[in-house]
Design a protein that fits this description.
CATH superfamily of the largest domain: Glycosidases
Number of strands: 18
Number of helices: 15
Radius of gyration: 25 Å
CATH architecture of the largest domain: Alpha-Beta Barrel
Shape: elongated
Largest sheet: 8 strands, parallel, barrel
CATH class of the largest domain: Alpha Beta
Strand order of the largest sheet: 1-2-3-6-7-8-9-10
Oligomer: single chain
Mean pLDDT: 93
CATH topology of the largest domain: TIM Barrel
């Protein structure tokens, strides 16, 4: 009996060691592989609340002739002058080489800065410079996939496989340059969360814009954002690139306003009634909890690279500015994609370097400053109750907060329009925000092509 017990114990130990060996072979990259690092800087004390955010997206490759982080740092004053308080920096990580198309969203290492952009020191200096100017910094983060030569490939069960055991690209996409991660694997999840924490503590960033968030399970987002929010002394911003309503319950403060963007294009390009903007706005916000926001934009890196810039989509400088007023003022977090403020007409790639000419259209830049800085100063626009008014060609709405009121009228057409002033506004007196002119409305008002009036009382 005693000999049998020894034999059983030996067999049990043998099985246990074999299991440990198998797991170690399959999961070679455990959370301990996240590189150590020291805390970098004091957590930023002035991270804006969601309702106060004005966001600016940086395409590093287009921002300067060198396409490096230092080129972004050099333009922080110009970004701040727009009224911006959150800077979203597109991916800073090394780009994979295997099957690559040079997309910055094809990441070979989640815990280092790609040499083409500079160093971790350069990123820390950028973050410190932004903080000194009262701007938070969020990094683009890719959780759905990696490059085919990412070091995580040593653990094949961290990836989604087909029936033959082959790692696959994300199904339903044409993203052949990346491999989809397997969120049934707990070790992969742990490593992903630890990598996100690493950037918060080692680069002193203030949150993440999470790429392709709709492709990642909600329970992962709930786990990851809960752990990140528990980091001591940190107030973090989370933006989901997606439209799922469960993003908000997981901890995201914002997600993308794709439907509103589509309606904007139809109104300006296809002469849809501007009343559709209110319909889409209400539909989007019917799924948004109190305190959360939709990100509103007239372009971003995808649209300006693959579709066209606002100068083309919204029919020139006047149309681009008119659309920007609606996107910023109707309700949501305004986004400016670096390039639109100077009216770039050519597409802006992000798989390659194509430096922006920052000297273009200074008059347009000045107008963006006026539009956004007024938004920044107006509690009525940021927090106010929306009162829409009828109109097919003119988008007209009032925002009210306490005793403050802001009235916005935008001609969405490339021709002059005579607008019938709603009865609620006739014989009311307002002050033009940008000119100081006092206006008392009668029954009609004439607006030139793509003209807008911003008034307060």
């Amino acid at each position: 009996m005693k000999l049998r017990k020894i034999e059983d114990l030996f067999l049990t130990m043998l099985i246990f060691c074999a299991a440990i060996f198998f797991v170690s072979c399959e999961d070679k990259n455990n959370p301990a592989t996240v590189p150590p690092g020291a805390e970098s800087g004091t957590p930023f004390a002035n991270v804006p609340s969601t309702e106060n955010i004005i966001m600016y997206e940086v395409n590093i490759r287009a921002f300067s002739a060198e396409g490096k982080l230092r080129g972004v740092n050099a333009r922080l004053d110009a970004i701040k002058a727009l009224g911006v308080n959150v800077v979203w920096v597109m991916p800073v990580y090394p780009v994979g080489k295997l099957r690559s198309v040079n997309s910055p969203y094809c990441i070979s290492d989640f815990t280092s800065v790609g040499s083409e952009y500079g160093t971790i020191t350069d990123l820390r200096e950028l973050v410190e410079g932004a903080h000194k100017r009262d701007m938070a910094v969020i990094l683009d983060w890719v959780t759905n996939h990696t490059s085919w030569d990412n070091k995580w490939m040593d653990s094949s069960n961290w990836y989604t496989k087909d029936g033959n055991g082959n790692i696959i690209s994300p199904p339903g996409t044409n993203w052949a340059d990346v491999a989809e991660l397997n969120y049934d694997n707990r070790n992969m999840r742990r490593a992903m969360i630890d990598a996100m924490k690493w950037w918060v503590t080692n680069a002193n960033i203030d949150g993440f814009r999470c790429d392709a968030a709709d492709y990642v399970p909600n329970d992962f987002w709930l786990e990851a954002l809960s752990e990140l929010n528990a980091l001591e002394g940190r107030k973090l911003i989370f933006l989901a690139e997606g439209a799922r309503s469960d993003h908000f319950s997981a901890g995201f403060q914002m997600n993308f306003s794709w439907d509103f963007y589509g309606t904007m294009k139809n109104v300006f390009r296809n002469n849809y009634s501007s009343a559709n903007l209110f319909i889409t706005h209400n539909q989007e916000y019917s799924k948004v909890p109190a305190g959360k926001r939709k990100l509103r934009f007239t372009t971003n890196h995808d649209e300006s690279a693959w579709d066209a810039t606002p100068m083309t989509i919204f029919n020139g400088k006047k149309g681009a500015l008119a659309a920007a007023v609606i996107a910023a003022y109707l309700g949501g977090v305004p986004l400016v994609y670096g390039s639109q403020e100077v009216g770039v007409t050519e597409k802006v790639p992000f798989f390659s370097n194509a430096p922006i000419n920052w000297s273009l259209n200074p008059d347009m830049l000045a107008e963006y400053k006026r539009i956004l800085n007024f938004y920044n100063s107006s509690d009525a626009l940021k927090k106010g109750m929306l009162e829409p008014f009828p109109g097919s060609e003119v988008n007209c709405f009032r925002k009210m907060y306490d005793s403050l009121q802001v009235l916005t009228m935008v001609n969405t057409r490339n021709y002059n329009v005579t607008y019938s002033v709603p009865p609620a506004l006739t014989n009311t007196t307002w002050t033009n925000v940008f000119t100081g002119e006092v206006i008392t409305f009668t029954d009609t008002i004439r607006l030139s092509e793509y003209a807008y009036l911003i008034m307060k009382k």
